[in-house]
């Protein structure tokens, strides 16, 4: 039962983090290779507050707010760059974050922050809490996508120059996307800190950002349902199959290559096409 609860927590945390990246990259077209840094900010903030005696529920809002603030700063630094240059800029943010926390004794340096108090819930209750937050994240992303803001995000991602000609402040909405997506990442990081009870710099390295981006692309960039399914599946596969855990990056790379070669719109696109064929086949 405890193992199943641990798997559920891992799935929920990964889904929240991937949805945050999907909001930035899928909704607004801002490809980020630094999302793990925002997860790390949330984890370190929650860890330090928890060790100071702050209750779990009180640590989540600061973790989200500080991660969102870093997302806005990253967005400001990336306003003048697009596409490949934006990816390189966000990758630099990730490398900078890991480098800084490794040098800070307050953050434990290479050894990270250990001895983090538990969430105050039994494993099953904590799993339910995390899955509930993941469900709220899904609802929030669906609401954003269907709102007027979601339509503006889509317009900015499709053709930023045209949106500016139409009088839309594209820069402002790019910053909102970074803020929302980073806040979800901060929430995921805080939940991860309580789950693992230790926070290490390498847990938020560039490779983790690439893994999150792989989940978004494989699930179908911009699709809430597709990204949710892909993130949940890719979070537990290394746990279920130890051989995959040893070669996680190789497996993720192969899945990403196959997706871009045979199904560039991801799992969501493949299922949508299958559904259309099935409906046409009906008498």
Structure description:
The chain contains 13 helices and two strands, in the order ααααβααααβααααα. The protein is mostly helical and 283 residues long. It is globular and about 55 Å long. The N and C termini lie far apart (46 Å).
Report how far the terminal alpha carbons are from each other: 46 Å
Rg (CA only): 19 Å
The H/E string reads HHHHEHHHHEHHHHH
Helix-strand makeup class: mainly alpha
Percentage of residues in helical conformation: over 70%
Output the CATH topology: ABC transporter involved in vitamin B12 uptake, BtuC
CATH architecture: Orthogonal Bundle
| Sheet with the most strands: spatial strand order | 1-2
CATH domain class name: Mainly Alpha
Shape: globular
Number of domains: 1
**Mean pLDDT, as a whole number?**
85
Main sheet attributes: strand count, strand direction, barrel closure = 2 strands, antiparallel
Set down the secondary structure blueprint:
Blueprint lengths: L1 H26 L7 H17 L4 H22 L5 H21 L9 E2 L8 H24 L1 H11 L1 H6 L4 H27 L1 E2 L6 H14 L4 H17 L1 H5 L1 H15 L3 H16 L2
Antiparallel strand pairs: 1-2
Helix pairs in contact: 1-5, 1-8, 1-9, 1-10, 2-3, 2-4, 2-8, 3-8, 5-6, 6-8, 9-10, 9-12, 10-13
């Amino acid at each position: 039962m405890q193992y199943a609860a641990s798997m559920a927590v891992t799935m929920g945390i990964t889904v929240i983090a991937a949805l945050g990246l999907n909001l930035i990259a899928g909704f607004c077209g801002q490809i980020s290779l630094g999302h793990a840094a925002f997860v790390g900010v949330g984890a370190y903030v929650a860890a330090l507050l928890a060790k100071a005696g702050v209750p779990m529920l009180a640590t989540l809002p600061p973790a989200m707010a500080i991660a969102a603030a870093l997302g806005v700063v990253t967005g400001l630094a990336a306003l003048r760059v697009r596409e490949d240059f934006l990816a390189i800029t966000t990758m630099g943010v990730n490398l900078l974050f890991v480098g800084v926390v490794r040098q800070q004794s307050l953050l434990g340096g290479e050894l990270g922050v250990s001895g983090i108090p538990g969430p105050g819930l039994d494993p099953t209750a904590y799993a339910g809490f995390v899955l509930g937050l993941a469900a709220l994240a899904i609802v929030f992303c669906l609401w954003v996508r269907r709102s007027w803001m979601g339509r503006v995000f889509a317009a900015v991602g499709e053709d930023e120059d045209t949106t500016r000609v139409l009088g839309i402040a594209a820069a402002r909405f790019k910053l909102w996307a970074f803020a929302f997506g980073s806040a979800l990442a901060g929430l995921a990081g805080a939940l991860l800190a309580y789950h693992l009870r230790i926070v290490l710099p390498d847990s938020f390295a560039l490779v983790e950002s690439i893994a999150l981006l792989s989940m978004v692309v494989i699930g179908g960039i911009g699709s809430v349902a597709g990204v949710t399914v892909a993130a949940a599946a890719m979070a537990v596969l290394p746990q279920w199959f130890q051989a995959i855990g040893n070669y996680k990056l190789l497996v993720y790379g192969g899945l990403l290559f196959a997706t871009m070669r045979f199904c560039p719109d991801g799992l969501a696109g493949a299922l949508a096409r299958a559904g259309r064929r099935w409906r046409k086949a009906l008498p």
